[in-house]
Amino acid sequence: MNHFKGSLLQRILIPILVVMLIEGILLCVVVFNSGTMEGLKGNAYDVFNEKVSGRSGTLENDMVGRWSAIESAAETIGDGIESFIEGEGITTADLTPDSSYTSKLLENLSEELIFRMRRNAVTGVFLILDGDGRDKKAGLYFRDSDPLTEASDNSDLQAVRAPASITKKLNIALNTNWLPYFQLTEGADGTEYYYEPFRTAIERPELKGTELGYWCPAFSMHGDTGGRESMILTYSLPVYSEGIPCGVMGIELNMDYLVKQIPARELSEDNYGSYILACKKSGSGDGEAEEYTVVARSGALINQLEGQSDVLSISKESYRKNFHSLLSPSSRQGAVHSCIHDLNLYERNAPFSGDRWVLIGIEEDYHLLSFFYEFERAILFILAVTILIGVAAAIIVARAVTKPIETLTYKLKMADPGSPIRLGELKIDEIDKLSGTIENLSREVADNAHKLEAILDMTGVSVGACEYTDRAEKKVYCSGDFCRLLDIPEEEMTGSYLPTSVMKKHMAELKARQVERDREAGLYILKFGKAEEERWVRLKVISEKGRILAVATDMTQEMQEKQKIEHDRDFDLLTGLYNRRAFYRQIEEVFMNKKRMAIGAMIMIDLDNLKYVNDTYGHDYGDEYIRTAARVLQSLDTRNSVVARLSGDEFLAFFYGSGNRDTVRHRMDQIYEMFKNTKIHLPDGTSIPVRASAGMAWYPDDGENYDELIRYADFAMYMVKKTNKGAVVEFNLESYSKESYLLQCKEELNTILEKGLVDYAFQPIVDARDGSVYAYEALMRPNTENIKSPDALLALARSQSKLQQIEKLTFFKGMEIFSKKEVAKTDCRIFLNSISNQVMTDKEIKEFQMKYSAYLSRLVIEFTEEERPDAELTKVKMRYFGDAKGMTALDDFGEGYNGESILLSMNPDFVKFDRSLIKNIHEDSKKQDLVAGLIAYCRENGAKTIAEGVECSMEMDMLIGMGIDYLQGYYIGRPTHFPGDIPEEIRQEIFQAAKTEIDFS
Amino acid sequence: MKRKRMGSLVGATLALSLVLTGCQGVKSAKLDPKNPVTVTVWHYYAGGQQEAFNKLVSEFNSSEGLERGIVVEAENHGTVEQLASDVKDSLAKKVGAAEVPGIICGYGDTIYDIDKGGNIVSLDEYLSEDELKEYIPSYIEEGRLGEGDKLKIFPTAKSTEIFMMNKTDWDVFAEATGASLDKLETIEGVVETAKGYYEWTDARTPDVPDDGKAFFGRDAVANYLIVGSRQLGIELCKVKDGKVTFNTDKEVLRKLWDCYYVPSINGYFGAYGKFRSDDAKVGDLLAFVGSTTSASYFPKEVFNEENESHPIEALVLPVPVFADGEKYAVQQGAGMAVIKSDAQKEYAAVEFLKWFTQADRNLEFAVSSGYLPVKTEALDKNKLETAIANSGEQIPENLKETLEIAFDTCSSQKLYTNRPFEGASGVRSVLEYNMADKINADLEEINKLVAGGMSRAEAAAGYDTDENFESWYSDFCQKLEDTQKEQ
């Protein structure tokens, strides 16, 4: 019941409950605190007490004043005995059971006894004569089981003890346990009724009459017969003859009769309580409880209690006057009250006054205080009912208020948000005002929604949305074009809603239409329709807590445009074949699944005569030539093949999925056949066939990736172009390996030249006199994959006729690097190696002079020995220096072309002795002679000498000793990128050697 | 306030329970252990019977009664007659009369009398067919009274007659005279034996003439006349629709006269004390026919006039029948009737009676009281043995024998009792006392004659005449008819 949770209910209920509670508490306080309850309780106790008190009074009267009123009878009988024994001349001791006197006496006395029994309304009467004091005693004992009625013929009597002659005479029936005499053994059970008063009378002769009366509590006479006997209560009194006790007479009350005297019915209307006549023997009972021996009992309760019911255990302490707790036996239903009233059967100082006789009224708490409890319950009942009514009323009132609101809520829930809501009147002002406001609001919202839809319509954008919420789980709201966009039939809709189950079904169907998806972004592109009527819808799904929102947008136009762009991007405009980029994408896809490829062939095709057609007939025919070739290629089975136009006259095709190479070869043959048969008609009336060269590389034998295969196919095609135009050649790894180094180096050379990708190291040239650095030689250090040495670079450049560019590179780059070094700031010279037969162009020379004018005076051009020097060119080279006075050096003298003749023609400033002359010169006297001669020669011609390749101190010492001018070599200083002074110890060594030489000279 | 609410609650519960149980045909009511219903039982049991009854009531109160909410209180009301008059007083709401009891003990005729005011509950309403079938059919039949033969008396304890004898003294006599026990099977044989006994005892004191002792006596002369006539082929009191017609066949009555009146005036039979068991106690009689219930009164010792006693053994025999007669035995004993009150009380009363007559319990009561069980199932000697063994008390041997013989009697002889009718108690009184009074009166005369010196035989012969019979017969018939005139 959702509506009971509402705070409205709480707001109504709680205050009412609080009020009810206060009322209840007030009621309780008034009733329970005012003493009313205690009063009721007290009243119940009092009434009970009154009843017990009244009954005990009556019983006491009966017992003392009526039943036991035998004092005069005892006297009469005593007198009778006295006169009888006097008359017969015997003593009381002669009155034994077997004596005929006794029967006679008893016969005389029987009438008096029966009279007493009837007059005192007791159930029995007895007379026992002590006789000779033996246990067997004569006497009479008659019973009248119903003392209230009297039969004149004694037919209602029974003889318990009497001589048979008397019973016959009196027509009295014999009791089952009849005996003609009494058998009383002192001390035996059930003999107290005789011995107690008799002994006391003898022991205390001063006592007279009723003072010796003895009430003997319940006992059975079976003690002297062995038969079964009912329980009785007796009162006995001694009988005197001549002032001496000669027997006992008494009355008997049987239980049935006693019970009738204590009618428990009077205790309560419901007959629940019990009366108990009980006796507590003197001296018995101790502790907190007193024990009473039950004599007679009436009423239901005592029979229903649990435990030994012959003895009552009652607490000594009274909680109310005369009221004590009954401890045992006990009731299942709770406490039992006992109201105790004493029966004053004895005079204060009588010998048996120690026996306490009581009448006890017992009643269960539940019954005694039933009215009290009833009242208490009634009060609580009223309280509960009041509160219940209050709560019920509060709930009804709350419902009366909440119900219309609920109705309103329900109507609102069911209302179509798309149209203005009609709520109707509820006849409650406040709520009607509220619903009026809601109606207005919804009208406006609906208006706005209409406007929005109209705007959307105008924009031509087809948009639809649907919303699923947990709250309305049975249906889904769909707006605008949602259903139309997603092909959901309109007739399945009810208003703006679609049953959730139907929606789920459709959503499941949409999976098949999914073209793209981005699950995380909740974005799906769906495709509907076929061929010409294709349309696309974008579905954006947003899941929030308890709500799913989906927006569908028509994106057909967008998709169509996108497709067109993609087409333009991927296809060659002229031929309609894939362009390079698309080819790579396609081929990549193909290579994703290598298994499917089996054997593949990458074919590079180059049209042979395009340049000719272009040049001869114009580009239109060139284009036609290309298109025609493309058509042939297109006509190929497009399955298992990718064909693209790479550029100009280059096409690339990849065939795959073949079982063997011959299939592919056969396909190529077909293509060539078609080429041959396909002619284009030229404006001059002639026609030419398409001719193309093609290179083919096999997958997977030639290469496993397509880049490699393309390169190999290209290579194969290149080879065809070079040798055998118009043919198809398969890639050959051997020839590729051969050609590829060259191809590679060529490219590297170009790169080096284009980008100036060389570095220079500088090797010091020192003065042989003092070890100071005179100059540095710039040594080229190319460092590309294949070109690692200057020699290789030069050889390549030579083969490619690019030495001139090397010359230029040497000067520009060497100078550029030198100029950036620290040593450039000193006055040391810089030796640059020039290629003898190459010179820079005029333009380059000018640029060089401009750029490095500061260093030109320190520049030394070193002529290498590889190329034969040309006098003309040497002159041009001298122009490198511009206005500065440049110097030249002849390199590697003694090796190659640089021999003496050139020395003569060139007249250089420095001559550098080749390392072959220098090596081990200190051990080779021939070399020493030759070098010495040369030094001398150079000196004469004004040229300084430089020893190259000095690698040990002995060589150095020797050379210094021979008068060399400058030294160069590993021993002095290795080429380095960071030129500086030579090591100090080497310098010192040179210095010392030179000094020695001087001294020596 | 409480009373009213309780009353209406009980009323509603009763109404509901009546509706609910109506279709089953057996009434019941809702009992509440917390507020028990008290059912008072008025009985006239005395001595051992009362002890036994009280014991069972206590047992009920502390078990079944406690569980179900029934408290039974037993009250003794002296004699059957006393009880009936007390009940009538209570029903009439006489001043000083006790509250109307729930259950009363009574014979068919007393209950019939009380039911005249429509005061007795029809037990068919509370007992199902199956439950009724458990009881011995003739007992149920006897309990059906008045119009529509509704079951008004719940059979609780039944009795029949048995023959009990002082075996110890018999043995002396038998040894001396050769008297045979076989003779005691027939009434004629008893008469003969009694004559023999009288003569034998008379002969023991040769100096004193005519001091022979009576051998036999009867407690219920009425039973003798009713069952005796039945044995001899007539139904003395023929009852139809509560009306009686007397079949005073002279021949039959003569036979009955001869076998009781004649031995009585001759001193062979005797009746001295109140009951014949009393006579047996003091040695006045050697044997008597009495109710099974009197078995407990049969003495264990016999006192003579000198207060000397000697222990005796009892011998129980089936009641003697006429030699040529059909074997009928009397069916007697009281039942219990439920007095109309409210449904709850009535139901509680019936529940107690059902409990009380459950086979084992009924047997328990039987072995303590001398009554016969009322259920077919309980009439089983084996069960009797078990009950005796379980009773925990010392069951007198004679009581045990009595029951065994009585059980035999029940199965070997037809039990007979006349259905109750208008003025039955008056008729009973005539049957009981008419002949006995005649005997007493004539004996007085005979004793005078004997005292006057005439021999007893001679004196008695003067009364054993056809004329004397005729005069008694006409008086007897007249007295019987008179009982009906008073109605």
UniProtKB/TrEMBL annotation, chain A:
InterPro entries assigned: Cyclic-di-GMP_PDE-like, EAL_dom, EAL_sf, GGDEF_dom, Nucleotide_cyclase, Rev_trsase/Diguanyl_cyclase
Keyword line: Membrane, Transmembrane, Transmembrane helix
UniProt domain EAL: residue ranges: 742-989
Transmembrane regions listed in the UniProt entry: 12-32, 378-401
Record's keyword annotation contains Transmembrane helix: yes
Domain spans labelled GGDEF: 598-733
SUPFAM superfamilies associated with the record: EAL domain-like, Nucleotide cyclase
UniProt GO MF annotations: cyclic-guanylate-specific phosphodiesterase activity
Domain of life: Bacteria
Keyword Metal-binding among record annotations: no
Cleavable signal peptide: none
Annotated PANTHER family: CYCLIC DI-GMP PHOSPHODIESTERASE PDEF, OXYGEN SENSOR PROTEIN DOSP
NCBIfam families cross-referenced by the UniProt entry: GGDEF (TIGR00254)
Protein name as annotated: Diguanylate cyclase/phosphodiesterase
Annotated organism of origin: Murimonas intestini
UniProtKB/TrEMBL annotation, chain B:
Cross-referenced Gene3D superfamilies: Periplasmic binding protein-like II (3.40.190.10)
Pfam families in UniProt: SBP_bac_8
InterPro entries in alphabetical order: Bact_solute-bd_prot1, SBP
Signal peptide: 1-22
Keywords: Signal
The protein's name: Carbohydrate ABC transporter substrate-binding protein (CUT1 family)
